[in-house]
Amino acid sequence: MRSITLLLSGLVLAGAVAVQAATPDDAVNARKASFKQIGGAAKGTGDTLKTATPDLALIKKNAATIASLAPKVPTWFPAGTGIGKVSVKTGAKAEIWSDSAGFKLAAANFAKAAGDFKVAADSGNLDAIKAKMGALGGTCKACHDKYREKD
Ligand code: HEC
Fold first, then answer.
1. Which of 44, 70, 122, 127 has a CB 3.0–4.6 Å from the CB of 114, allowing a cystine?
2. Atom 38, ligand 1: which residue's CA is nearest?
3. Atom 35 in ligand 1: which residue has the minimum CA distance?
4. 27 lines ligand 1 (CB under 6 A)
5. d(CA 15, CA 17)
């Protein structure tokens, strides 16, 4: 029993060290990959919504992807990972940290909209899905306009 406890605490420690060891570049690459996933899910949803017979199963899957990632956004921006601070390309503006209350609010609005969109997607009601998708897209834009450098 004791050795199991020791083993477990060793694993927890190893995990903590691994997280700390992630470099600022790693953090940027990881969040870009996550935003790509969010972007792909949003685009896939928009595309199928434009067709005569939207794929509700796909919309449901995409909504779940976005809703699971959205609450994590604030954790993807450790200090020292903005433009000019890392060697990989990033669009993360300094305002994310200088106006962190505003950024956190933008992220919270996004997480709320992602939850609402998932409820609509699960309901299968196309009108609700379209309305909540529009609201969700507005929260992407609101954050990008203020906190993301355009390419
Ligand atoms: C709270 C702020 C915020 C919200 C909300 C947000 N984003 Fe972003 N997004 C960013 C920032 C900041 C970057 C730049 C990250 C970087 O380059 O390090 C980014 C980058 C991206 C990228 C580029 C990833 C890459 O490969 O470089 C895509 C695509 C993207 N976001 C899509 C979306 C979509 C779609 C939504 C809404 C469904 C959304 N984002 C919501 C802040 C946000």
1. 70
2. 140
3. 39
4. no
5. 5
Full residue range of the structural domain in which residue 137 is found: 23-147
Residue 16 lies in a domain: no
Mean pLDDT on 12-16: 50
Q: What is the pLDDT of residues 64-96, one digit of tens each?
A: 999 999 999 999 999 999 999 999 999 999 999
User: How many of the other CB atoms lie within 10 Å of CB of 63?
Assistant: 26
Q: What is the largest CA-CA distance in the chain?
A: 62
Six-digit token pair at 22? 């992630």
Beta bridge partners of 148: 92
Residue 16 scores a pLDDT above 60: no
Whether the predicted model's global pTM rises above the 0.85 cut = yes
What is the tally of structural domains in the chain? 1
Query: Residues, the chain, total?
Result: 151
